[in-house]
Structure formats: structure tokens, C-alpha cells
Amino acid sequence: MSRHQYDLIQCMKQPGKSIGLVCSACEGRCPLCDSYVKPTTKVRICHECSMGHLNNKCILCANYLGDDKELGTPAYYCLECVRLEKDREGCPRIVNVGSLKSDMMIRKKKEQASTPALLK
């Protein structure tokens, strides 16, 4: 979870057997502290986050990973989070879209709606 975006909410349910996958943009990042240093332990996510509409999405940014998850790579906790036992707190999947990202989506929709009017 990004340290700089305080509006993001993690799932935090009991982790299951499924391994959390990340997209190429988030590859190498620790899902708890955003560190790129010394990845050690694979991220486990809960059963609910590994099923349904969240199945083929990155656990950090919710980017689509493809039908067979061919674009995803396993997520890892950094050594410091493992030492502090933060990896045992629960499922680290981000379950909401932050206000910055939702504002960006709304702005893009407004721009796309106004663009055809300018072309006429």
C-alpha cells in the first residue's frame, strides 16, 4: 500500500493459499511499504480476493493481467516488513480506488465527452 496515498484501503482478511500477482508497473514493490529492496517472501491473498472480478487484476493498482494471468508476476514482501512481521497482518490487496485515480478517470471522461463537440 502506498505510504503517500492515505485514502487506499487494504482487504486485511486472513490470507489463503493464493499468491498475489502484480503488473509490470508494480513489479518489485513491497505491497506494504513500497520498498524495492530485498524481496523475500511471496505475498498470500485471501480466498475472496483470488476469486471473482479481482482474479485477473494487480493487487496494488488493479491493472488487468490478462485472461490467464500471463502479464502478472508474483508479489514479494521486503525483508524489513518480514522482520517486523507486517506480512502476517492480513491480505494486502487494495480494495478501493483512491480519490486521485477516480478524479483522473472522471477528468478523462469529461475530456472525451467534450472532444467530439470540438471536432464538429
From TrEMBL:
<dbReference type="GO" id="GO:0009410">
    <property type="term" value="P:response to xenobiotic stimulus"/>
</dbReference>
<dbReference type="GO" id="GO:0000245">
    <property type="term" value="P:spliceosomal complex assembly"/>
</dbReference>
<dbReference type="InterPro" id="IPR005345">
    <property type="entry name" value="PHF5"/>
</dbReference>
<comment type="similarity">
    <text>Belongs to the PHF5 family.</text>
</comment>
<protein>
    <recommendedName>
        <fullName>Pre-mRNA splicing factor ini1</fullName>
    </recommendedName>
</protein>
<dbReference type="GO" id="GO:0005686">
    <property type="term" value="C:U2 snRNP"/>
</dbReference>
<dbReference type="Pfam" id="PF03660">
    <property type="entry name" value="PHF5"/>
</dbReference>
<dbReference type="GO" id="GO:0005684">
    <property type="term" value="C:U2-type spliceosomal complex"/>
</dbReference>
